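Data deposition worksheet. Section B asks for the primary sequence of the deposited chain exactly as it was used as input, without tags or linkers unless they were present during the calculation. Section C holds the resulting structure in token form. Section D is free text for depositor observations; keep each observation to a single sentence. Incomplete worksheets are returned to the depositor.
Section A, Depositor: J.P.
Section B:
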Amino acid sequence: MAAPLTVSYHTADDLPAIEERLIEVYAEVYAQEADADPYFSVGRFAERLRRHAAGSRWGCALGEVDGSAIGYAYGFARTTAYQWGGLITPAPAELLEETDTRTFALCEVMVREGWRGTGIARTLHEELLSHRIEDRSHLSVEEDHPRVRALYERWGYSWMGTMQPYPDGPRYDSMLRSIA
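Section C:
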């Protein structure tokens, strides 16, 4: 019998204790991309992770089996000071207005290959959102990954436009869904 999945919720204060495990999962999941594109390197990811964790109300749902990290989902709250950068598709101003509790920026949802297709990504996503006080969740999915976009649409996300938040990074489909 397979060991059960355990999911724990973490805040930015916990990052020093879990950072190595998050980076280890990332390195495995993005190994092929990292070999081909410096944007996806482990070092660049670690920089983004630390910057995200420094954001307001960072949270992470970490999934483990037998004490080994097999996936996670994390993000942070956007504040009134947030500026929507990298938007390629125009969006109505009222869609981009932020309060301290309007939008949760979902930065990553990833699961190691051997555990994909088992519902763990959805479990981690929903556990993460269950801890949020924001009204909606925003995520970006690479344009080159239509199957992943379709998955997020099944989870209730809708396309809001195209964005490229980093000049050397890929273009993304920007998606929103209500958390309530």
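Section D:
The two ends are 36 Å apart (CA to CA).
The beta strands are 5-11, 56-65, 68-77, 103-111, 136-142, 158-163, 172-178.
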